[in-house]
Fold each of these.
Amino acid sequence: MDRDLALAQFQNTTWNLEAAIAEHFNPPEIEEVRPSRPPRVSREIKFIIHLSNGQDREVLVDEEVHVGTVLEIAKSNCNLRQDDPIKFTGWPTGGQPDNDLPLSILSLPSVVNLIHIDPNPAPLLPQATSRIHRLREERKDRHFTLKIEDTDQGDDHQLKYPGRKKIALIKDDVYSLTLIPPERQSWKGWPTSASDHIKKHTMAGKRIKTAASATNKAKGGSSKANGGSTSRQRAMKREQELVERQRVRTVSERERSNAKRLADKRRKAEAYKKKYAAEMQRRKKAGINGDLIQSNTDDWIVSTTELQVEFRRRFGDKGPQFFIGRLEDAAAEAYGSRVKVADRRLLAIYIHNEKSISANIFCSQILCSKNVSNFITANCVAWAFDMTNYLNRDRLLNTLDRMFQNGNITSQIRRMSPDQFPLVILSTGRSAYHEVLSTEKSNATAESMLDSLMNSVTINETRKEDDIKAEQERLQRENEVAQQESAYEQTLRADREKMEKLEAEKLTAERERQKVEKEERENLRKQQQAEDNLPPEPAVGTAGTCQLRFRLPDGRVLSRRFMESDRLAVLFLFIGAEGFHESNHRLIRQIPRADISALKRSKTLKEVGLKQDNLVVEANVESEEDESDDSEMEE
């Protein structure tokens, strides 16, 4: 007996010597266990290699070749170093198989995505890293259109989803269109690697084909590509036959188990269909034709107000009064930072699903129960939302993810079937911290709901007592520290006030001095500028001149000749050269009295009528009389 074959049989029987001997002398009849299958047809497998540099390579091989052959072809096509060990992740079997195993016994799909692990990865530049991350995020944010054909009803649907959407959520949305529960939906066209938890963007760019239902028969035999001794090839052949026998047994057991599970699902689906039809008929007679929230607006106030109105219309005024607004605002109302510790209450979150048969029964018999409603009103802040519409569902789950950051409650809601709704969540916390105390589903009764509420209130009161005690101790410590600081401040306050008063007086004197110096420097600058810009005085006897006298504020009287063609601006340059700038002074003609400063500087002396006049330079103090004189002079 060949040693390798004996060792393989011994290992196949879990190292049971008696079982190995019995299997050797009484081999199982494969034809009696194995179901009839069509003859195996050799097929090709496409490997998509994702390299660390962001590039992709495709390798197309026959499934009769060995794993080592695939690795060598991939190493050549991807230009990998021959001396480096080659390793890929993403094998459907888990870890990377041995190089001597043929692909036919691994039951691989037609397309396999492998990721190359570089043994000596080069550090990525920040620009490359940010670019790769940006491309991945852009791919996730792209929208894809699914063309769905309902073969039962003969309807076609086109739904547009973002790349982050999961298949399980898509099935829930299809349920709202076709009234076929997700567990009864049978899909064709998804890639073979698709599952309910895979995001849609990971399958973007693939051609969707219907997977074949026939199971291919693995072929034994040796591979000429790898070579080796004849005894080793025979041992490998026998090992493959043993693996194939075990796989056939496993497949048969799995098929029987799947058939039984499918029959159970069908029975449950039929029962659910009958209950659903009866509930729909009852709602039709009661005039219930839609969800509690029928709009798709992003405004939480509008949505919660619509739910409150519809809830009152269906079930009357016996139920609790729901909070209008965002869930975060309801939590702040219950136990936010502005709420005193002694006034903290529970947050009761009611999640409605119109697809549930128990939705209206739960509302009318439990939420509208007198004891439950009064208890919630007295001890909780109630907030309600309808997640029947998939857009409202996403809004609610995103909000719960932000509030309850551990993700347990949102994961629980995503796994719940429509029949498990409605759901009541009792939450407590402080400020921005939120904690779920208990949950009640559709199978609850009024008594169990009341017990859960009372237990949650007891837990909340216990925590409030601890918080109140800690708050009192903190306030006592703060008062002691405040008293010590107050006594210390009183001893320093008098000295500080004296020092501040002296510093203020010094600062005021210094500011006054600087202001005076600044004004003097500014006046000197303006005076010098006026002197530089003042045209020279015309000579005596020059034709077209006029003689003007100026009475200055310091008592001096100056006389000067000007050309009749000079502009009024020359007069202001003259008084500016004497130290009386026009910004602080004005020029007044005595007879008739008129304010020369109010006239346009572009006018000439002749146009104004100045020939031999007396002018007075006054401080810039305006009066109603001067303004009236100026207006008369302009006329």
Amino acid sequence: MELKQLEYFMTLCQELHFTRAAEKLGIAQPSLSQQIRLLEHEIGTPLFDRVGKRTAMTDAGNILLEHCYHIFHELSQARAAISELQGLKRGSLKIGALLTVVNYLLPDTVIEFHRSYPNIELSILGLRTGDIYERLLQNELDLGIVAQPMEHDDLETVPFLTQHLALAAPIDHPLVEQPFVTLDVLKEVPSILLPDTYVLRQLINDKCRTLGFEPRPVMEMTTMESITNMVAKGIGATILPKGYLDCIGDQSIQTIPIQRPDLTTEIAVVYRKNKHLCAASRVFMERLISSVKSEN
């Protein structure tokens, strides 16, 4: 059994389609099929059920996949420990961060880290919370930056920022004269919000339900930039992190505090438990937390 075969196997588990998996791996489909057959022969049982064009994992395939995660986790641990011998002179660091914090929380830390350690290959990916957790568990990320509450037995979280949400309205909207608004404003004002699959929207929905109503946005959009563009054009108002709204500094939008209830989320660094936290991960995390606390 070779590591290459296990890599091929894991990719096929993700795609459940031989042609797509082969394309993702950059090999010919017959080569992939041959390697999977060899692996099944060595295991002594089918790993996939092939019915027509449909491919499904067998119970044995699911068991092997779970062990593959552990195998590649241990390999990454070994690589990280060995790279420690090089200090911060070389290596890589992959971070998954919420789209709501990438633009305004990370830039200063990213720039400082790169200037201090230019030979560390740094990757910052804007992702949703669920994707960050999944990639951490599959060892595709070293660190995540997420909104709590979100708990998992295999993940460690380090909260470092309480993020306040605020209403953003067009600069000429009557609401901008108010010192603050309550969440009931969503009953009366057309709104543009993130979809229900986003943690931020789920928080808004939960708070609205405690007040006895469901938010009914006139639009749902998946990026904060597109939402604020709609607000600037007078389509409606939105609720987003105040730090982000202050960061973009759009003169056609006015930020108004929300009270009764005060809307906040807790931002945390998250990483896999029992994983060797390399020097690059530790230094980046320490600098991010220090930078945020100094500004707040």
